[in-house]
Amino acid sequence: MLTESTRNPADAICHATVKAGDYWLYKVTEGQTLRITDLEGNQAADTLFFNADDIAERYSMPDTVRGQGNVFLTTGTILRSSDDRPMLEIVADTCGRHDTLGGACATESNTVRYDLEKRHMHACRDSWMLAIAEHPEFGLTRRDITHNINFFMNVPVTGDGGLCFADGISAPGKYVELVAKMNVLVLISNCPQLNNPCNGYNPTPIAVTVW
Predict the structure, then answer these.
(1) What integer pLDDT is reported at residue 202 of this predicted model?
(2) In a domain, 108, yes or no
(3) How many domains does the chain have?
(4) Whole-prediction pTM
(5) Which residues contact 73 (CB under 8 A, 6 or more apart)?
(6) Is residue 97 part of a domain?
(7) Do residues 35 and 127 make contact, with C-beta atoms less than 8 angstroms apart?
(8) Where are the extended beta strands (E) located within 19-144?
(9) Which whole number is the average pLDDT over 176-191?
(10) Does any domain span residue 137?
(11) Fewer Cβ neighbours under 10 Å: the N or C end of the chain?
(12) Buried-state track 17-27, b at ≥16 Cβ within 10 A, e below 16
């Protein structure tokens, strides 16, 4: 559901631009609001969420989908944890829907889906692994890379129950805004994928803002 935000960027406590292929790792405390903005359109922001006070509890795709009875995420969606607790709520969304079924790209999936010669290409899992290596203070390991959300990514469900990657439905300046229901660790990979239309074959920057 399309919903505009009433928040003023000038009042934000954090604002950052994340280049394509880069990551953003940040603690959002309970009650704070996170906005992710698709600056140039047709970009995908692959995002992991963890309970900042107990990283063994993290975003759960099955619990979220079951809780809302819908495979797509938009305004009103409650992102639920692996303990089936509310983590964040989407309170504004000017894109319309977001994917949580398609997973994240990796060198292995690049090889399987596209070609052996694509294996060397940078992928979201690489960005997450780099973030984990560069920030040991958060206690994350490769075992913590599980369910993710692909904000702005368009992954339609086909008539026979399959998935396909399609051209994005986002546009320059579209955003999604989430309010934290607990202290949340956010790890975003701004997707560098060049082999399917999730980024329009041209990865571009995103912006993140926190109030």
Answers:
(1) 80
(2) yes
(3) 1
(4) 0.90
(5) 64, 79, 90, 97, 98, 99, 100, 149
(6) yes
(7) no
(8) 23-28, 33-38, 45-51, 78-80, 86-93
(9) 96
(10) yes
(11) N
(12) ebebbbbbbee
Cβ count within 10 A of residue 103: 18
In a domain, 6, yes or no: no
Q: For residue range 116-153, what is the model confidence (pLDDT) as tens digits?
A: 455 565 777 888 989 999 999 999 998 999 889 999 98
65-69, 150-154, 183-187, 188-192, range with greatest mean pLDDT = 183-187
CA nearest neighbour of 51 among 19, 80, 90: 80
Domain residue limits at 94: 28-210
Task: Read off the pLDDT of residues 72-124 as tens digits, 9 standing for 90 and up.
Answer: 899 999 999 999 999 999 999 999 999 888 777 655 555 555 554 555 657 77
- Non-local (6+) Cβ contacts of 78 within 8 A are 64, 67, 68, 86, 88, 89, 181
